[in-house]
Design brief:
The chain is built from four helices and six strands, in the order αβαβββααββ. The protein is an alpha+beta fold.
């Protein structure tokens, strides 16, 4: 469950910002999570609920907004917005499910906050021309959009 590790890092960073601003409480954390980070929101919420107990964030809420992946095609130089589950379903219908399972395994082994720019390279097919000469240029990241103190 890579969600706990990710939420722990984010929570610690938010507490650090709260301390730097002499905040007495932290009431809200707003995240944008790329769909290809493969974060299960319910696990992220559970991790957050466990971490906040006994802290200045005891009554805080964690809001998560999902963002799509953006695929860049080296063949036609077009960008397309994609979502992981749609791509995985399409791949399953084409007999390419194993590649997606390998992606899922790799993303849980990578540190999301460090990132791996080559993860997803040539895996997803262009929506415009169908080429697999593609790079996933957005959608694997986690962004602390803002916090409310």
């Amino acid at each position: 469950m890579h969600e706990f590790s990710m939420v722990n890092q984010i929570f610690r960073k938010c507490l650090e910002v709260a301390r730097q601003n002499n905040a007495k409480s932290l009431s809200e954390i707003n995240l944008e999570i790329g769909d290809f980070a493969l974060i299960v929101e319910v696990y992220a919420q559970q991790a957050f609920n466990a971490l906040k107990k006994g802290s200045i964030a005891e009554n805080a809420v964690l809001n998560i907004k999902r963002t799509p992946g953006v695929l860049y095609c080296n063949s036609c130089q077009q960008k397309s917005e994609i979502w992981f589950n749609e791509e995985k379903e399409k791949a399953a219908n084409e007999g390419r499910l194993k590649e997606y399972e390998q992606y899922e395994k790799a993303i849980t082994e990578e540190s999301l906050l460090k990132g791996n720019p080559n993860l997803g390279r040539n895996l997803f097919h262009c929506r415009k021309c169908g080429s697999s000469d593609t790079n996933l240029i957005e959608g694997k990241g986690v962004l602390i959009k803002n916090i409310r103190l």
